[in-house]
Amino acid sequence: MDYKYFSKFKNNKNKYKYDTHIQQFALLTYILGGRNCYEFFRLNLSGSLAHISNVEILIRNQEMRMTDSEFRFQLIKEYLRPNKCNYVFIAEDATSLICRIDYDATLNSFIGFSAPLIGGVPQPNFFQTENFEQLELWFNEIDKAKFINLYMLKSLVLSYPRFILAAYGSNNRAKAIEILKRWLFIYHQCLVQDTHIIGFSTDADARFLRAMRLCSRFFATLPNFNIFKYQAIFHKKCQKNGLGFSWKNNKLFLCKMVFILLQNLEIDCFLKQPI
């Protein structure tokens, strides 16, 4: 390591000042290596890296900190601005985790419980209390999160990186109607940010398949819930070369993305690039 580089630090009485490159290096080391790795570097390279508390402040100031159950809709425009494409896909998946309850002093909230769903949407900072009896009640009656649900947003520009929209702890007991309502919530919040969702991607869980059937009226319907009342929903068009999707302004989308083999039937799904 070139120790001459560290001579660029500006020492101001009782503390060091670090330039942008060192701050970025510290940030990446903390995110990719974790707290223990960062402390190892900081203690063995005296004065070279900022204290962990300063790195955490840097993360908060750059809005890089993820809050359990909070959707980061306000950052979508900034994410999409460089590629000038406001059409995206949303991907959702869940993975198991080790149950553990932590206290977040910054948010004054307990993390690790299964987030309650209201209209299918997880509620951020729900478990806030200064009452020990209330906390004891949560431990006894509220499910601990056994899964973490992750929502990723991806621009239609293939070379552009993905964006983490939200993550939250779950007991994996959501119903199909709650999933559908959550999709609609995400869809409309993205519209507020002038972003159009082309589709949602997830695994073959029966509840997600039922939500998909409810969306398309494929042998399933809800008498008191009409998804087709929303004006911006795109519609399907059958073409000679496959199945296409278009908005009401008849702009076509897509590139070949999906190939489905159904018994002896081959089905290609297309999205045309905007014309």
Q: Mind explaining what this structure looks like?
A:
By secondary structure, the protein is α+β, with helices and mostly antiparallel strands. The protein has three domains: 3-61, no CATH class; 73-232, no CATH class; 234-275, no CATH class. The chain has seven helices and 14 strands. The strands form six sheets. The protein has a four-stranded mixed β-sheet with strand order 9-8-3-10. A two-stranded antiparallel ribbon has the order 1-2. It has a two-stranded antiparallel sheet with strand order 4-5. It starts with 9 loop residues before the first strand and ends in a 6-residue tail after the last strand. Residues 3-9, 235-263 and 265-275 have low confidence and may be disordered.
- Total number of distinct structural domains: 3
State the helicity in percent bands.
25-40%
**Overall pLDDT level:** 77
Distance linking N and C termini: 52 Å
Strand order of the largest sheet: 9-8-3-10
Low-confidence stretches: 3-9, 235-263, 265-275
Which helices and strands appear, and what pairs or packs with what?
Layout: E1 10-12, E2 15-17, H1 20-33, H2 35-44, H3 52-61, H4 76-80, E3 87-96, E4 102-104, E5 109-111, E6 117-118, E7 121-122, H5 132-141, E8 147-155, E9 163-170, H6 176-192, E10 196-201, H7 206-216, E11 235-239, E12 242-246, E13 258-262, E14 265-269
Helix pairs in contact: 1-2, 1-3, 6-7
Quickly describe the structure.
This protein is of the alpha+beta class and 275 residues long. The chain is built from 7 helices and 14 strands.
Jot down its keywords:
7 helices, 4-stranded mixed beta sheet, disordered N terminus, disordered C terminus, alpha+beta, single chain, 14 strands, 275 residues, two-stranded antiparallel sheet
